[in-house]
Structure prediction request, 267 residues.
Amino acid sequence: MGRLKTIRTAALAAVLGTALFLGGCGDLKKTFNFTSIDEQGNEEKLDLNFPAKNLLAKGMEDYSVGKYFTAIEYFQEILNRYPFSAEAPLAELKAADCSYHLERYQEALVLYEEFTNRHPTNESIPYVLYQRGMSNFKQLDRVDRDTSSATKAIEMFRQLVKAYPQSPYAAEAKARIAAANQYLADHEYFVAEFYVRTEKYDQAKVRLKYLLAKYSDQPVAEKARTLLADLEAGNPPRSAITSWIPRLNDSVWPFTGQGAAEISSSD
Prediction:
């Protein structure tokens, strides 16, 4: 079950091996009580010697108050010990959610994808598609960085909107698509501006034309038209252009930051 399962399995194997060496099979039960580290770096004793239903209840209790470090341990224990239980699918999903809330976005992507592959008809699939899009979207930073996360986010959000247009997540997905497209348009303008600053005017014109062809409705398009007109007139900016690198949480991003509607998995 991915990296988390590998780590958890390895840890359990080590503890079990120690128990067998020191006290024999009679001590095995004790090995399922272990110490975890919470969000504040404090040690916390977790009792995992529960049936799947109780483990799920304990995990959801911690999850509901934001104790994602401990909640994920309970969910992983269900998957390790009771992989075919009725509680396993929800444990899979909540383990992915924990990784997402802990900002382990690449790990969350793997877990959400595994859930999709195992449960393609599950009623939570619209939410999972949204979260896969968000796991990419949350990795966007400045427009001078790699844009692959924006492209992947758009792909997931479009898949959600197309397959589940009536989903409660569809409207938010459309807003995220708009924001990601604005990010990509801003990236193109940044690249064109770089070429202007380095006096590579032909390359700059190519990028500006591409921007206007694909993102003509974006706010940066007007700046691109003005710059392109100056370049084609043989009148490039004489003074150095101040580097223009908006961040995703700047005011130019109307669908992100604290004002964006975050749809909780507990809804």
In short: The two ends are 26 Å apart (CA to CA). Confidence is low (pLDDT under 50) at residues 1-37, 247-267. Residues 1-103 form a domain with the Serine Threonine Protein Phosphatase 5, Tetratricopeptide repeat fold (CATH 1.25.40).
